[in-house]
Specification:
Serine Threonine Protein Phosphatase 5, Tetratricopeptide repeat, globular, 22 helices, mainly alpha
Length: 532
C-alpha cells in the first residue's frame, strides 16, 4: 500500500508565535553582545581609574599623578576614549568622556582637560555630568591661576546635584581667597558654613575662614572659629595645622603666654619636619620679643644656622633685617633682606624681603637727591615710579595704592598729584574690584583738581559729563636727574659682626626702573583711561 504523500503543515497561531520569539531572541542576543562590549570597556576603564585614585585626598585635589598612578590613569583614558569614539550615543558615553577629562586633569594636562570638560557639557548638556564638568573646568582654572574665569563658570552652576553645588560654593570662596580678596572670601566661607553645616568640607571651610580673619586683623573671631574647629574630630595632621594657626592668632592677639604653651605642646606632638621648623621659628620669635635687639638677633641667627636653606632660615634672617631697620641701620637691614631672599627663593619670607629691600633701595635713591624745588619734583616722580614697581613688578596692588596716595598727599601742588589719585582709583577698581573705594577717590579727584585731564577721566568713570575747557599737559614722570637704584648684584653691604655667614652678593637685583620720555603713559595699556 502506497504511503500518502506528506502535505505541507499549516502554521497555526502557536507556530507563528514560536518563530517570532526565536527571531526576537536572536536579535536581542546580538544587541546584548554589542552592549556588553562597550559596557565591559567602560567597566574596565573605571576599574583602572578607581585603582589609580585610591591614594587621592579629598576635594580640591590638584596633585599631579606620577609613576604607576599616572600609568593607570593613561590606561583608563585609552579605554574611556574608545567608548566615546565607538559608541557616542550609548548611556556610557557621557560618564566615559567625563572620566577621561578627570584622568587627564590628574595627569597634570590642565588645558587639555578643560577642552574635554567643555565637550561634556556641549555634547551631553542634559547629563548629570555636565555640571560636574563645569566644576572640573573651574578647578583647572584655579590650578592655572585663571581665577576670574573660574569664578564666572562657578556662578553659572545654579541647579545641580547637592554635592556639586556644595563643592562649587567651596571652590568659589577658595578662589576669592587665592585672589587676595580676603574680606569677600571671609563672607563666602561664612555663607558656605551656614548653607552646608554638615558638609564633609565644613571643617576645612572653617579653617580657611579663620585664616581670612587673621589676615583681616580679627584675631578674636579667628580664635573663636578655631576653638570651634578643634572641638570636632579631625585628622592628626589637620589638627596640628589648626593648632598652629590658633597659636599664631593668640600671639598676634597679645597673648604670648597662651601661644607659648600651645607651641610647646605642639613641639611634643608634631612629627613633620616642616611643622617642627615652623614651631621653632615661632618659639624663637616669642623668646626674642622679651630681649634687647642684640640678644634677639643672636636667637634668630642661631636658629638660621640650625636650619640652613629653608623657609625657616629665610624667616629668621627676615626678622634680623627688621630689627636692624627698626634701629635705622639700613645697610645691615638690606644685607639681611637679601640673605633671606637667597635662603628660600619663592617663599613668603623671600617675597616680603624683596618688598622691604625695594623700599630701602628707593629711600637710598631719594636720599641722594638735592633739596631744591627740582629735586622735589624728582622725589615725586621716583615715588610714583615706585608705586608702579609695586603694581606691575611685585604684583602688590595694596602697596601700590598706598604709594600713589602718598604721592598725592605729599605733593598736592604738583601736577603729578592728580595722576596719582587717578591711578589709585584705577587700581581699586581694576585690581581690587572695589567700586565704592574707587568712586570715592574719583570724586575727591574731581573736587580737588577739576581742571585736569584726570578729572575728566574720573568724571567718565562716575558717569558725569566732561569739562571741555580742560587743556592741561600730561605730568612728566621722567627723571632729568639720573637716579641709580642700588642693585643687589653690585655691592651688597657687608653683614654686621653678629652674622653667622656673609651674604652672597650674587642675588638677582631689583628691576631697572628706566626714565620715560615726557607724555608717555606708564604701566600697562589702559593704565590711564579716558585721557586725550
Amino acid at each position: 500500500m502506497n504511503k500518502p504523500a506528506l502535505l505541507p503543515r499549516e502554521r497555526g497561531p502557536a507556530g507563528t508565535l514560536r518563530c517570532a520569539s526565536m527571531a526576537l531572541l536572536a536579535l536581542s542576543g546580538v544587541c546584548l553582545l554589542s552592549g556588553c562590549a562597550y559596557f565591559n570597556t567602560y567597566y574596565n576603564a573605571k576599574k583602572l581609574y578607581d585603582q589609580a585614585g585610591r591614594s587621592r585626598a579629598g576635594f580640591p585635589d590638584t596633585a599631579k599623578a606620577g609613576g604607576a598612578e599616572a600609568g593607570l590613569y593613561q590606561k583608563s583614558s585609552d579605554k574611556f576614549a574608545m567608548v566615546v569614539s565607538k559608541y557616542p550615543s550609548s548611556r556610557w558615553a557621557a560618564p566615559s568622556l567625563y572620566h577621561l577629562a578627570e584622568a587627564t586633569f590628574r595627569r597634570g594636562e590642565y588645558q587639555k582637560a578643560q577642552g574635554l570638560y567643555e565637550d561634556v557639557w556641549h555634547f551631553y548638556p542634559g547629563s548629570k555630568y555636565a555640571n560636574r564638568a563645569r566644576l572640573g573646568f573651574a578647578l583647572a582654572c584655579w590650578r592655572m591661576g585663571e581665577h576670574e574665569r573660574g569664578r564666572r563658570l562657578l556662578a553659572s552652576i545654579t541647579s545641580a546635584e547637592s554635592r556639586v553645588m556644595e563643592r562649587s560654593a567651596f571652590l568659589y570662596a577658595l578662589i576669592g581667597q587665592s585672589m587676595g580678596d580676603t574680606a569677600e572670601a571671609a563672607l563666602q566661607w561664612e555663607r558656605f558654613l551656614y548653607q552646608h553645616p554638615k558638609s564633609g568640607l565644613a571643617n576645612q571651610a572653617r579653617f580657611q575662614r579663620a585664616q581670612c580673619l587673621v589676615s583681616l586683623g580679627d584675631r578674636g573671631g579667628a580664635i573663636a572659629e578655631l576653638n570651634k574647629l578643634l572641638s570636632s574630630r579631625l585628622r592628626k595632621a589637620f589638627r596640628i595645622q589648626a593648632r598652629l594657626l590658633l597659636a599664631s592668632a593668640l600671639e598676634q592677639a597679645g597673648k604670648p603666654d597662651e601661644a607659648l604653651a600651645l607651641y610647646r605642646s605642639l613641639e611634643k606632638t608634631a612629627t613633620d619636619q616642616g611643622d617642627l621648623r615652623t614651631i621653632a621659628l615661632r618659639l624663637a620669635r616669642i623668646q626674642a620679643s622679651s630681649q634687647d635687639p642684640p640678644q634677639a638677633r643672636s636667637i634668630f641667627l642661631e636658629l638660621a644656622a640650625k636650619h640652613p636653606r629653608t623657609e625657616t632660615s629665610a624667616g629668621a634672617y627676615l626678622l634680623v633685617a627688621e630689627l636692624w631697620e627698626q634701629e635705622n641701620v639700613m645697610d645691615s637691614a638690606r644685607a639681611y633682606y637679601n640673605l633671606a631672599r637667597q635662603e628660600s627663593p619663592g617663599s613668603t619670607a623671600a617675597e616680603e624681603a624683596l618688598r622691604s629691600a625695594s623700599d630701602i633701595a628707593m629711600l637710598q635713591a631719594l636720599g641722594s637727591l638735592a633739596s631744591d624745588e627740582k629735586a622735589r619734583e624728582q622725589n615725586a616722580a621716583v615715588q610714583f615710579l615706585m608705586a608702579e614697581h609695586y603694581l606691575f613688578q611685585l604684583n602688590q596692588p595694596d602697596q601700590a595704592i598706598e604709594k600713589y596716595g602718598l604721592v598725592a598727599a605729599s605733593y598736592p601742588d604738583l601736577p603729578i598729584a592728580a595722576k596719582s589719585m587717578y591711578a589709585a582709583g584705577w587700581v581699586q577698581l581694576s585690581a581690587k574690584a572695589d567700586t565704592a573705594a574707587a568712586d570715592s577717590i574719583f570724586s575727591q579727584l574731581v573736587g580737588r583738581y577739576p581742571l585736569t585731564r584726570y578729572a575728566n577721566a574720573a568724571r567718565e568713570r562716575l558717569g558725569l559729563p566732561w569739562d571741555t575747557t580742560v587743556a592741561d599737559q600730561e605730568p612728566d614722570v621722567g627723571l632729568s636727574v639720573p637716579i641709580t637704584l642700588p642693585l643687589d648684584t653690585a655691592s651688597v653691604p657687608r653683614a654686621p659682626a653678629d652674622s653667622v655667614k656673609a651674604p652672597d652678593p650674587a642675588i638677582p637685583g631689583l628691576p631697572d626702573i628706566k626714565p620715560r620720555p615726557p607724555g608717555e603713559e606708564t604701566g600697562k595699556e589702559g593704565m590711564i583711561e579716558g585721557t586725550k
